[in-house]
Amino acid sequence: MPIDTFTWRCRDRRAEWGIVLMAYVDESGDTGPIAKGGTRCYSLGCVLISDEHWPSAFDQMIGFRRRLSQTFRINQRWELKAHYLTRGAGTIKHLALAPRQRHLIYRGHLSILEQLNARAFAVVIDKDATGVSGPDCFHMAWETLLSRLERTSTFEKAPLLVIHDEGEDHGVRREFRKARRHLTAGSAYGTGQIRQKGSLFLDDPVSRSSQNSHFIQIADLVAYAGWRSYQPPGRKVAEVCPSDMWSNLGPAMHTPVNRLSGGVPGVVVRKR
Fold first, then answer.
1. How many CA atoms lie within 13 A of 210 on its CB side?
2. CA 126 to CA 82: how far, in whole Å?
3. What is the pLDDT of residue 15?
4. Is the dihedral of CA 212, 215, 216, 222 positive or negative?
5. How far is the CA of 116 from the CAs of 52, 59, 260, in angstroms?
6. Mean predicted confidence (pLDDT) in 62-71
7. CA angle at residue 108 from 93 to 166, to 5 degrees?
8. Would you state the pLDDT for residue 91?
9. In sequence order, which residues have a C-beta less than 8 Å from that of residue 24 and are 6 or more positions away?
10. Element (H, E) at 25
11. Could you tell me which residues come within 8 angstroms of residue 10 by beta carbon, excluding any fewer than 6 positions away?
12. Average pLDDT of the segment spanning 204-233
């Protein structure tokens, strides 16, 4: 087939299929019982990037990490997680960065999402209010997240691929395959349950080490900031990630996920 003919056929397919959404997901907190030392909330953070914006977003992200290296001596290959920034731990422990510096680094990661043409939202499970923990908590979080992704992909007519941090591969795959067949979501108007299915979900979720994905690392920061927008942190942690850290997402907040249910825009809170 001549190259020009092949190119035009690809363009025709592009017009037919539209964009592909890539959803990067990570968690914050744990699913364990509160009575046994578990966190009060368990949250998932999601960063959405379309395939057409991914190449430029990746280049801009590398540039951002390069600036962090020049300003704060943070190696571009080091993993950055919410826990490391709020506690001055992990890969940055030896740098002894002040809380104000770590606050700027955290804020920068959320602020840059708008420049990347990315969007973000979080799902927060209040384990005390819902009374769930363990596998039930995990299921509630992922079912809630996938129902929002299903609505997004359906409304935008965009196939969707999920990339998540490794560690819960079997559980995530199970939830994803179930969602492809059937999802249950509460009606925003109080009229019972709505049944959906992820008909535009692509293949199985892709598991990646967060150490090797800047976007999964940002999803971790999104998950924690979303949690703290609901449950304010203690004084020390608030110096780095205060309860209003979420506002730094600005236009990158994916607000349709809870526009009807209310609350902090882009943060879906489950209390029941």
1. 21
2. 19
3. 42
4. positive
5. 11, 9, 27
6. 97
7. 65
8. 97
9. 46, 47, 48, 49, 163, 164, 213, 215, 216, 218, 219
10. strand 21-29
11. none
12. 97
